[in-house]
Amino acid sequence: MKKVTSPYIIVRRSKIHGTGVFAKKDIPQGARIIEYVGERITKAESDRRADIPLERHKENSECGAVYIFTLNQRHDIDGYVPYNTARFINHSCNPNAESDIIRGKIWIIALRDIKKGEEVTYNYNYDYDSHEDHPCRCGASNCIGYILDEEHWWKIKRKRTLAKKKRLSKKTSKAVSKK
């Protein structure tokens, strides 16, 4: 199959993680940047493949990466194919693009105008259940520390607030007991 690319992008090393996708020219808000393509698989096959990511990607510098993307209730797209350029788009907690499913195809779409040279990113929207397995390195000022759907960020913030209160409480009780 022919490599899927786009007139908007170029692939190169990323400060976020490994390889990234960058704007080759200015990209207007709302533009379909690139289609996320790959092998269409069942949910059962998706679960099976997700359990073997380290073995599967040993030869790849993106070790441990999973390229499975939810398509619908019955199928996913496994983007770990050489013709899927979109698999190199990194996660960010402050993304400039998003994914959208349009007529059975997964598109990466600009959320805002993206300047030439800027890295194209989107939020991978991972579930909370395994968030600790997916630390985030996006470097955004609002980075939550994990590759996680924004709807779950409050849980991380609450956890941090409770831990901070607990630490402060311990310090206060130690100070009182020393007197």
Rg result? 19 Å
Form type: globular
CATH homologous superfamily placement:
SET domain
- Per CATH, the architecture is Beta Complex
State which percent range the strand residues make up. 15-25%
> Please, how many helices?
3
Question: What profile does the largest beta sheet have?
Answer: 4 strands, mixed
Category by helix and strand content: alpha+beta
**Percentage of residues assigned to helices:** 10-25%
Number of E strands: 10
Overall tally of structural domains: 1
CATH fold label: Beta-clip-like
C-alpha end-to-end distance: 75 Å
**Would you tell me the overall average pLDDT?**
88
Series of H and E elements: EEEEHHEEEEEEH
